[in-house]
Design brief:
about 190 residues; alpha/beta; six-stranded parallel beta sheet; 10 helices; globular
Length: about 190
């Protein structure tokens, strides 16, 4: 991905991934398995003037309802040019998609900007989850992140859950959603 990003090929690959993901989510919805589809976008994609058109086209081609698509942006990408990012995210929100900050807590975001970003979901970085079954400090940080998200009206997703102890710790902290190998390994679509 860094090589694709460097030479600009990420735009074409990202457009293809977006279309494939929307088409798959639409197929699942047609078979009665409606789900939320998340697609990560890179720094170059987020800065592209074509991203909103690409998202709109993928949704239209697949007939996927915009509310079923979540665009994920890593915290570090958000902070590269935070003022411009706010505008790009607002334009995406106008399409009707959800916006998530991926790997939250791993970068250097400002809480001031966090208020300004039109986001729906915080995905807590797996590094916080890995330490909750043995570190008071990790539990305190996780508690703070969950409270922060709740107070901002955001959905909270814990990434990288791999053990029962981690899952129980997240339940104790009232973390609403989780993803990780404890639930399932990556699989081909059915």
């Amino acid at each position: 991905i860094p090589v694709l990003e460097e030479n600009g090929l990420i735009l074409g690959v990202g457009r293809w991934v977006l279309r494939q993901a929307c088409a798959q989510a639409a197929r699942w919805a047609q078979s009665g398995r409606s789900t939320q589809m998340s697609v990560n976008v890179s720094m170059r994609q987020l800065a592209s003037p074509d991203l909103v058109a690409d998202v709109s086209a993928a949704l239209e081609e697949s007939a996927l309802h915009p509310s079923r698509l979540t665009i994920e942006v890593t915290e570090s990408v958000l902070m590269r040019d935070a003022d411009a990012t706010v505008e790009h995210l607002r334009r995406l929100k106008e399409v009707g998609v959800m916006i998530a900050i991926d790997d939250f807590g791993s970068g250097q975001s400002s809480l001031t900007y966090l208020r300004r970003f039109p986001i729906d979901e915080l995905k807590i970085d797996r590094s916080f989850i890995a330490g909750i079954d043995g570190s008071r400090e990790s539990v305190a940080l996780l508690h703070t992140l969950v409270e922060l998200g709740e107070n901002l009206g955001l959905s909270i997703v814990a990434e990288g859950i791999e053990t029962c102890a981690q899952l129980e710790g997240l339940r104790a902290e009232r973390c609403g959603y989780g993803q990780g190998f404890i639930f399932a390994c990556p699989q081909a679509p059915r």
